[in-house]
Specification:
Blueprint lengths: L1 H20 L28 H20 L12 H15 L5 H11 L4 H12 L2
Helix pairs in contact: 2-5, 3-4, 4-5
């Protein structure tokens, strides 16, 4: 009887060891590239002329303007001077053209107009969706 129990235990242990050797536990790194969280691959677009690029930006801004008008939560911030308007145009163009990130756009906007994070997030999301 003792021999049978010892044999059963030895057989079970052998099977367990063999089973563990076939599991996915290994110290090698996967060969498949891992996408980082939040990382987006931007498809390469055919190059546009400056005029086409300018028109595409204006269309994107028109679309964002439509979103703003439809959003009762949006609070206008004062772009009262030509300097402010030029600053805003330059900043929105840079985020639309992906010269700066969404976070950079929002941070730069909040430096000039604190308390308008919702507005800058809405604008950035609208421009980057184009």
């Amino acid at each position: 009887m003792m021999k049978t129990n010892f044999g059963s235990i030895l057989l079970a242990a052998s099977i367990t060891v063999m089973g563990l050797s076939f599991t996915a536990c290994s110290t090698t790194t996967p060969t498949v590239p891992v996408k980082k969280v939040g990382e987006k691959k931007i498809p390469e677009e055919p190059s546009m002329t400056e005029e086409e690029k300018h028109l595409a930006y204006k269309n994107a801004m028109r679309n964002v303007g439509g979103q703003i008008q439809a959003d009762p939560t949006y609070q206008k911030f004062g772009l009262n001077t030509d300097e402010d308007k030029n600053w805003f145009t330059d900043l929105t163009y840079k985020v639309w053209d992906r010269q700066i990130s969404r976070g950079q756009f929002i941070a730069m906007g909040l430096e000039k107009f604190p308390g308008h994070s919702y507005e800058f997030e809405l604008i950035a999301d609208g421009l980057l969706a184009q």
